[in-house]
Amino acid sequence: MGKIEKTAFGQNGASLYRLHNRHGMQVTVTDFGARIVEVLLPVTGEGLRNVTLACASAEEYLAQDAYVGASILPVAGRISGASTEISGQTYHFTENEPNRTLHGGVDTTNLHLWQTEIDEAANQISFTYQLPDGKNGFPGTISVTATYTLTEDNGVRVSYRATSDKDTVFNPTNHVYFNLTGDVHQTVGQHRLQIAADRFAVLNGDNVPSGELRAVEGTPFDFRKGGVFEQGLTSDYEQIKLVQGFDHPWLLEDAEQQVVVTSPDDKVTLTLQTNQPSVVIYTYNHGPTDLAAQHGVFSLECQALPDACNQEGFGSILLAAGEKFTSETEYQFSWK
Ligand code: BGC
Fold this sequence. Notes:
The longest helix has 6 residues, at 58-63. It is built from 3 helices and 28 strands. It has a 9-stranded antiparallel sheet. With 336 residues, the chain is mainly β. The radius of gyration is 19 Å and the shape is globular. Bound molecules: beta-D-glucopyranose (BGC).
């Protein structure tokens, strides 16, 4: 385990922090949006392979932000009607899509500098941010900590903790994108994927869950025994055509390996473990193509189901005043 190195990350005061472990793996994170920048693996015969979509400075993220690597607060995904009821009162949020709030609204914390705390002994960086009461319509001063740890088991552990001084809704996620070949300009179609999920959430035309939780059986969403992304990306299945790929939540089973992805060259495997009930997999269906090819990367956004605050049977994302929120997700890597 090495010392955590700090360097400037562009001209606006942002910093880049580099963590190492004793297997030669490195992770870089920045206080600009509490982002994961790179995950670097010492793949045999080729030096360090970066398996994320990464920008080279805070300004680059600012110029073309598709939430790349960022922490998303306070509520990830789309909220239908850009409103919800919290403890008997209706709240209206900033609409950044017609009649919807995506990823917490506008001018969100992914575009701001967070406070940093370094814990060398734990090989860990914590970023903190205080969301002001009423920001984008969300009630409560919400104090949030995002902690990134590089473990000696080659895991990148992401943990969110929060408290609010008013009842509010809270469902954060991390929006890191991966291509395990290291080349984000190639489609991820041939990556192998296994997901321990029997059901996925069907989307309506607004890209919001319709409320239906559908069995994966007999659909391109069935990765229980493994498959390749391509089985969805080129399918005529109506849910795929609707969003030109995957942009869907799967309901995770309580398995030891909830999601496993392997690169087509078989050299890199990512295994996901989370205490969150679902994973939203977005295959970069319409991101800026100068940054990555269409379908050139995928995200594994661990969270409660999107629009849970407005849908029966989707679970609660209420964060009551004074209560503690915690989520834990680990992306673990192995390589040859
Ligand atoms: C959403 C996509 C959206 C993307 C923006 C994803 O989490 O599900 O619909 O376009 O974020 O980067």
